């Protein structure tokens, strides 16, 4: 068996290879983080049987993701190692030397010492995409929520009565369309009646009538809100900012749906699970076969109960540990 250790960095990587007897087969060499660089280790490994070659690298942020995808596409067996495992081997090194070249040997030896190796598959790559998309979706939703709160604050200052008219929510397409055209009550009051009526009707799919538009115009005429052009500008700009994460979320969720449909996971048979929440769960869990029993999966999700016991006392009212993935 051949073990290849790759030390990952932002611009340049180092790699070496050893046999299962510890013999150095390929001295450490540097290659760049680009297409030409990726071809170099592949060409050096061409003389070895891919089924007998295990490639290991540490989990280091996102810098190694492209290389992993390339190697998996080339049908190499790739294992992403926990840095804690390689760190333990470094501590046992008498000389306490740490360089990129030495690290390649440490990674290769760590790979060789593992009893059970888990190799990256195309399914794992899809799960990595789901994880990235799911987390980006969460950030985008938080960003949109902050913008919604900001818009509500601005509207409260210039046209507080409008929230009595749009009782369901201020944050809907019909309201945004109206406020982009007329962000102050004075502008709404001075509009020709057909203009706000058409805006509301078209953007609410016929939900609002002309009579309701008249009611809104009366509210605008009687509004006690401040006629502040600065706030009006902030209203229109904030609505445009809100529309960006809205379109981003549509694209994110469409891609998550495509990945979920392609993999056809059994998680979709659970009542209440859809493509989006199912994709977020799978993205965080990854390959469920990594967990030998349900308790380990619960612990990974932070849903295992914390335990407090001392001598003859044992607390029976402890909470869930919540020590891992916040998304789960």
Keywords summarizing the entry:
Transpos_IS110, 12% strand, Helix Hairpins, Transposase_20
Globular, elongated, flat, extended or rod-shaped: what is the shape? elongated
Number of domains: 3
CA-based gyration radius: 29 Å
Oligomer: single chain
Q: Using the 3D structure, state the CATH architecture of the largest domain.
A: 2-Layer Sandwich
Distance between the termini: 38 Å
CATH topology name of the largest domain, in short, is Nucleotidyltransferase, domain 5
Domain Transposase IS116/IS110/IS902 C-terminal: 265-325
Protein name: Transposase
GO molecular function, one term: transposase activity
Domain Transposase IS110-like N-terminal: 4-160
Give an account of the 3D structure.
There is one protein chain. It is built from 13 helices and seven strands. The protein has 328 residues and is of the alpha/beta class. It folds into three domains: 2-120, 2-Layer Sandwich (Nucleotidyltransferase, domain 5), CATH 3.30.420; 131-248, Helix Hairpins (Orthogonal Bundle), CATH 1.10.287; 260-314, no CATH class. A five-stranded mixed beta sheet has the order 3-2-1-4-5. Strands 6-7 form a two-stranded antiparallel sheet. The radius of gyration is 29 Å and the shape is elongated.
Outline the fold blueprint.
Blueprint: E1 2-7, E2 12-19, E3 24-32, H1 35-44, E4 53-58, H2 65-73, E5 77-81, H3 83-91, H4 100-113, H5 122-158, H6 162-165, H7 173-181, H8 185-190, H9 194-203, H10 210-222, H11 229-263, H12 275-285, H13 294-300, E6 309-310, E7 313-314
Parallel strand pairs: 1-4, 4-5
Antiparallel strand pairs: 1-2, 2-3, 6-7
Helix pairs in contact: 3-4, 5-11, 5-12, 7-9, 7-11, 9-10, 11-12
């Amino acid at each position: 068996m051949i073990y290849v250790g790759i030390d990952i960095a932002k611009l340049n990587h180092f790699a070496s290879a050893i046999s299962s007897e510890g013999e150095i087969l390929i001295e450490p060499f540097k290659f760049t983080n680009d297409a030409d660089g990726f071809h170099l280790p592949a060409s050096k490994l061409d003389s070895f049987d891919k089924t007998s070659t295990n490639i290991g690298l540490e989990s280091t942020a996102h810098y190694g993701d492209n290389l992993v995808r390339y190697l998996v596409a080339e049908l190499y067996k790739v294992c992403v190692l926990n840095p804690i495992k390689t760190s333990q081997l470094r501590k046992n090194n008498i000389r306490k030397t740490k360089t990129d070249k030495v690290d390649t040997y440490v990674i290769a030896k760590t790979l060789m010492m593992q009893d059970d190796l888990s190799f990256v598959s195309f399914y794992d790559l899809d799960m990595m995409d789901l994880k990235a998309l799911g987390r980006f979706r969460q950030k985008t939703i938080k960003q949109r929520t902050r913008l919604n709160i900001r818009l509500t604050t601005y509207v409260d200052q210039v046209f507080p009565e409008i929230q009595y008219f749009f009782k369901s929510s201020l944050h809907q397409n019909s309201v945004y369309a109206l406020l982009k055209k007329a962000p102050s009550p004075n502008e709404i009051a001075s509009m020709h009646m057909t203009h706000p009526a058409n805006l509301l009707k078209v953007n609410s799919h016929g939900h609002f009538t002309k009579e309701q538009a008249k009611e809104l115009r009366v509210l605008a005429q009687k509004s006690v809100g401040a006629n502040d052009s600065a706030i009006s500008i902030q209203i229109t700009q904030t609505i445009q900012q809100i529309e960006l994460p809205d379109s981003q979320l549509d694209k994110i969720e469409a891609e998550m749906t495509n990945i979920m449909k392609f993999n056809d996971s059994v998680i979709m048979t659970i009542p209440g699970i859809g493509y989006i929440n199912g994709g977020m769960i799978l993205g965080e869990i990854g390959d469920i076969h990594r967990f030998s029993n349900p308790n380990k999966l619960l612990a990974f999700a932070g849903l295992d109960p914390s335990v407090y016991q001392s001598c003859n006392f044992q607390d029976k009212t402890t909470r869930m540990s919540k020590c891992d993935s916040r998304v789960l």
